[in-house]
């Protein structure tokens, strides 16, 4: 029992995932410093349409989005969950500053490195911006902020991060988010929309190998943080998309019979040839489903902002 208390959260989650049948690992652990760096490469790919779509949305609709944020209040806290490098958000931040809007920008990310780099870049690009970066779990950090300033909260959850959650996790996420919002608070959430399966597969099974590297880095993280001995060369990356359900699923597949030891867990995990580890879900949505999610969790949809191809939507909700 004493040993159990010494196992880290990532250790517990890894033990649970690799002991399950079928095996899985949690996608939230993709984003260590190396994983965050690889994801920047993914976002730069021409096939990865999500970044371009959201950048287009912010560039095209920044005035309407800004007006919706500040509607009826003198100032607000702009809180971004999973801010990363802030590439797209900077379009909004620039316009907000040019419009003399009173706000404080609070980026929250699990990667300290990403936060440091974001703050440093903002100091150069927007030196007058009031920015207060927080490193840690989204909801723990928002809870610390809740009510402190007395200002409206405008919470950003961009890049279709919500698509990585299971249906149960989506329900939990929005329940927690709703619980932290006061009446009139706003949330702007990115949803990747259903579209041609070919477009989706080119983005999630790219020929450059970035997505495969991103998945395999999870194993390298376990080697480093849990004293495991995964050989990434013994696994290959596989992705599938179901246009009916809108689910993209990615796996690592064991190419051989092998045993992997995880020293910090004092446990061996056995793999059969072509056995899978489920790595990530990327859910695609439609407008009806988005409307239902908002209504079920105490929000109303104020406006949907989309790109000209209707690939992606940033949906603005208000707490009711």
The CATH class of the largest domain is: Alpha Beta
**Tally of helical segments:** 10
Considering DSSP H and I runs of 4 or more, what fraction of the residues is helical? 25-40%
CATH structural architecture of the largest domain: 3-Layer(aba) Sandwich
Number of strands: 13
Q: Helices and strands, in N-to-C order? A: HEHHEHEHEHEHEHHEEEEEHEE
Span between N and C termini? 45 Å
Mean pLDDT: 93
Tell me what portion of residues adopts beta-strand conformation.
25-35%
CATH superfamily label of the largest domain: Vaccinia Virus protein VP39
| Spatial order of strands in the largest sheet | 4-3-2-5-6-13-12
* Contiguous uncertain segments of 5+ residues: 1-5
Described by the principal axes of the CA atoms, the overall outline is globular
Number of domains: 2
What would you call the structural class? alpha/beta
Rg (C-alpha, Å):
20 Å
The third-level CATH topology of the largest domain is Rossmann fold
- What does the main sheet amount to? 7 strands, mixed
């Amino acid at each position: 029992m004493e040993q159990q208390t010494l196992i880290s959260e990532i250790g517990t989650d890894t033990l649970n995932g690799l002991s399950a049948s079928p095996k899985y690992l949690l996608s939230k652990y993709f984003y260590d410093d190396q994983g965050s760096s690889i994801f920047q490469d993914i976002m730069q790919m021409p096939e990865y349409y999500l970044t371009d779509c959201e950048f287009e949305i912010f560039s095209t609709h920044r005035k309407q989005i800004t007006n919706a944020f500040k509607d009826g209040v003198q100032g607000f806290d702009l809180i971004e969950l999973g801010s990363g490098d802030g590439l797209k958000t900077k379009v909004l931040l620039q316009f907000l500053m040019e419009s003399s809007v009173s706000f404080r920008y609070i980026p929250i990310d699990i990667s300290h490195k990403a936060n440091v780099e974001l703050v440093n870049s903002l100091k150069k690009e927007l030196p007058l911006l009031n920015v207060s970066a927080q490193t840690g779990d989204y909801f723990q950090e928002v809870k610390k902020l809740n009510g402190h300033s007395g200002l409206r909260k405008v919470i950003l959850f961009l890049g279709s991060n919500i698509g990585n959650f299971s249906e149960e996790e989506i329900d939990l996420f929005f329940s927690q988010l709703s619980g932290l919002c006061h009446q009139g608070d706003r949330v702007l959430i990115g949803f990747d929309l259903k579209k041609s399966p070919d477009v989706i597969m080119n983005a999630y099974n790219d020929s450059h190998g970035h997505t495969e590297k991103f998945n395999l880095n999870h194993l390298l993280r376990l080697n480093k943080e849990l004293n495991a001995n995964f050989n990434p060369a013994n696994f290959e990356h596989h992705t599938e998309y179901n246009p009916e359900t809108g689910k993209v699923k990615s796996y690592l597949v064991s190419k051989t019979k092998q045993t992997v030891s995880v020293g910090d867990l004092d446990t061996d995990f056995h793999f059969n040839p072509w056995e899978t580890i489920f790595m990530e879900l990327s859910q695609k949505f439609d407008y009806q489903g988005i409307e239902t999610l908002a209504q079920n969790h105490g929000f109303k949809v104020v406006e949907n902002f989309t790109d000209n191809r209707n690939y992606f939507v940033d949906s603005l909700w208000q707490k009711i």
